[in-house]
Each structure stands twice: as C-alpha cells, then as structure tokens.
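quick one before i forget lol
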Amino acid sequence: MAEPEVIPYLPLDIALDCLYRVPFNFFPTVRQVCSSWRTLFSSPSFSEARRTKGYQTHLACIVQAAPSTPGKSPVYSISAYDQKQNSWTVLPPIPDLSYGIPLFCSCVSLGSQIVVLGGWDPSSWTVLTYVYIYDFVQARWRRGASMPTARSFFGCAANEGRILVAGGHDSGKKALQSAEVYNIVTDAWEALPNMNQERDECKAVCLGGKFVVISGFSTDSQGQFASTAESFDFSKMEWRAEGSFWPAGRPPTSIVQFREQLYAILDGQLVRLRHAEKVWEPVCSLPAGVKAPACAVPLGDGILVVGFCGNGAITSVLWSVETPSSWKDLDASFGTVQHNACTVQV
C-alpha cells in the first residue's frame, strides 16, 4: 500500500518533519489546509513527536491587558512569550466572555493546555466559578465544569491531569480552609478534606509529586501572611503540616517551581529554597531596571520575570541557569500585568 501523501512530492518522513517544525502560532492556519493535516495536528502522536525531536517550545503565558482609554476598564487577555521565536503572541479571546479574561483569575497548564479558573466579572465584581481551557494544538477554547465553590485569591496548582484549588476567600471575605481537585480528563470536580487552617491569598505548587499550599492568612488576621505550609497526600486523602516554609508577613505570590526546586523573589533577590532546612538562600540580584516584579514563571533553561520599571513601563528579563548564570533583557510585553502566569509546552 502506498504511503499517504502529506505534502505532494515529498517523502512521508520529510513531510512530517516539516510539519513538526511549524511554530505554534501558525497552528490555526495550518490546520485549515486539509483534513489530513487537521487530523495530524489533533493527534497525541503529533505532540509527542515534536517533544522527542526537540521541536517543542516553552511558552510563558501571562495574564495582562493592553493600555486602555482613560475612563475605561482594561480588557485582559493572555499573552504567550515564545522563547524560540523571541516573540509575544496574544491568545484568542474566550468566546463566552465579552469582557475578556476575568480579573484576578488563576491559570495553570497541563500538557499543551492552559486552564483559566475563577476570577471576577469586571463589570459587577461578581466572583466567578468558570473554568475555561485553551488547547494550543486544537487552537481553541472550551468550557470546563465550573468550580463547586466560589472563591477568590486561592492557591492553584496542576500535575498529572489534576488541578488542585485551595483556600482563598468567599464573597463575604471569609478565608477558606476548603480544597477541591479537578480532573481534566473526566471534566469533574471532587471535594477534598479541609486544610488544617484557613489560607487566604495562599500559593499552591506541586513539589516532588505532592501538592503543597504555602502561607496565606486567616479571616481574623487579614494580611498577616503565615510562614507555614501543608501538603496533600492523595493516597491517604489527608493534609500534612510542613512546618515553617516561608518568611512570615510576606505574600507568597512570586514562588515558582523550576527543575524540581522552588524559587521566589524577595527584597530584590532571586532566592532558592533549600528544602531540607526550609531556608531560602540568595541566588542573584534582580537587574536594576526591575523595580517592582509582578510575576515569575519557569521557561526552558531559566526563569522569566515580568515587572515594572521606575517609570511604570513593563520590563521582561530572563534568568538563565547556565554557568555562569545571568540575566537577559527580552522584548517588552505590554499593558498591565497580573500576578498569574504559567508555562505551557507546545
């Protein structure tokens, strides 16, 4: 039987290799060429082939807004920085949401998908339970099952097809102890046992295969961030206290996982957690131009930090782990930046 003709007059292996190299921002256009290409780009083997051949790219996805007209609220979207192309791309808007990405939403990644959870309706300040998933290979949004509990400023982390949400506060500003887990394959939520304490504005990460919820504060101690953390054991379905984990009184928003280690930004320094001693050690100083870091996200061989210069303009810098480690200025993105960001491999 003759091999299928993917690109006329080219051997199959060469034709496939050409398509494996297509940058992600051309996926929507390429998928429309013919049914065989659409089928190819939709198959799991396509993503796996890009990964094994080294054609995948790391995308830093950041929630931000373009400068708005005075008197009008900014409309938020997701900007993706492609490290290989050294370029920024704005993802298509969510079809259901005319006001753009919800304010203060959370975003995490699973495989080649980014998941947006919760946030506020910018016109009414209503707390939303929406879940939307953008598939970079399919190049489209879809709606997921809504969160069972309306919560704001919660911890959120993803691993192996599951997304944990924990803490935050309800519409009455009461800090929450509750936690839930979402299965992206079954599109279903499951309630988990309550954490050991209320944790509003906490940070969740996945470390060593465990979901860890760090810091946060209780209803009675607004803004007094705790030093403690706790991890969830799915085999026992219980929370375990992790002791002192983070400097008390400091918001944990900048914590990011890179190569199975936790990093953060503290007092103008990039710091790294020595897990055994629960000590954050300095790695290097931030570049002088970054006056107010807004978010940090792992990216390929380093960590991308997006923040503000002294004049309020956006700046983007990449710390490379290569020896010797160094900072590199990137093309600036635009507009207002929220704290939420994640990395997607496409």
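fyi The longest helix spans residues 12-20.
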